[in-house]
Design goal:
With 298 residues, the protein is α/β, with parallel strands linked by helices. It contains 11 helices and 12 strands. Helix 2 packs parallel to helix 3. The radius of gyration is 18 Å and the shape is globular. The relative contact order is 0.13. The protein has an 8-stranded parallel beta barrel, surrounded by 8 helices. The protein has a two-stranded antiparallel sheet with strand order 6-7. The chain has a domain of 155 residues: Luciferase-like domain (TIM Barrel, Alpha-Beta Barrel).
Length: 298
């Protein structure tokens, strides 16, 4: 299982430093979210020029605010700048974000993603597309000098989205999804769908908060505040319920070095191909201890 680091939100300078340190520590990948701060793909373009080895990924860029032609152009630009090390993670976001903040309709999100991928995937892989669906009609091409096709990962939690990710993309990225749910729901669903579609072994990227500490209760109490919002979002709430978790704090990997290693190994045993650690403590002994355990997997 490949090990990556989640960079969180921050300035371009912050990400350049953090990605360089992630590479120096021997990790496989560095991931940035697209929230309401710096543009993740623009930041990765800068990182790709200055940090030469590791994979750079987005976890994830919402689809609704960006036309798939624009998304393809941006992704291929990062792919060119990084020398072929970019992984494009995309997702639906959430109904209240798309409708209340952006003012778009969130009607039939699976249809939206299917049509979006019907445009995005050919543009990324072949450079051109002609498609007419219920919500999209596109005839366009994208050519970025020096770019090769990049993998496309879909943030998929429910059965329909996992099947879509398997059939049309290269795999999935999960969040707030514990090892029990990965083993019993996520991995078997996407693998079976990929086998049925003949698309090969899907990539399964699992992201979870991690803290190596002698006081796991305190770490979980902090996580309950930091990640509180995810306990109320329907898609993540469904995954927490599958796990038997009362809230986000219950899927945090926290404890001694030995306990954290064992929990990360559970994620690997569940079938994840990648583990992305979300370090939610700053520069203190907990962060250092956490990074040391993560490096033991590299």
């Amino acid at each position: 299982m490949r090990i990556g680091i989640f960079g969180g939100d921050g300035s371009v300078a912050h990400h350049l430093h953090a990605a360089a340190q992630t590479e120096a520590d021997g990790f496989d990948s560095y991931w940035i979210p697209q929230i309401f701060g710096a543009d993740a793909m623009a930041v990765h373009t800068a990182i790709g020029v200055h940090v030469p080895r590791i994979e750079l990924g987005t976890a994830v860029v919402p689809t609704y605010p960006r036309h798939p032609v624009v998304m393809a152009s941006q992704a291929l630009t990062v792919q060119s700048a990084s020398g072929g090390r970019f992984a494009l993670g995309i997702g639906l976001s959430h109904e209240w974000v798309i409708e209340s903040m952006f003012g778009y309709s969130f009607e039939k999100p699976v249809r939206h993603m299917r049509e979006y991928l019907s445009v995005l995937v050919p543009l990324i892989r072949e450079g051109a597309v002609k498609f007419e669906g219920e919500t999209l009609k596109v005839e366009a091409g994208v050519a970025v000098e020096g770019a090769t096709p990049c993998p496309i990962l879909v943030a998929a939690l429910g059965e329909q989205m996992l099947k879509l990710a398997a059939a049309m993309a290269d795999g999935t990225i999960t969040w707030m999804t514990g090892p029990k749910t990965l083993a019993e729901h996520t991995v078997p669903t996407i693998r079976a769908a990929a086998e049925a579609a003949g698309t090969g072994d899907p990539r399964i990227v699992s992201a979870l908060p991690v803290a190596v500490t002698d006081d796991p209760d305190a770490a979980r109490a902090k996580a309950a505040k930091v990640f509180q919002i995810y306990g109320g979002l329907p898609s993540y709430r469904a995954m927490l319920d599958r796990e038997g978790a009362a809230g986000p704090a219950d899927v945090v990997i926290a404890g001694t070095a030995q306990e954290v290693r064992a929990e990360i190994q559970r994620v690997a045993d569940a079938g994840a191909t990648d583990f992305v650690a979300v370090e939610f403590f700053g520069d203190d002994p907990i962060r250092t201890a956490t990074r040391d355990v993560l490096k033991s997997f590299v």
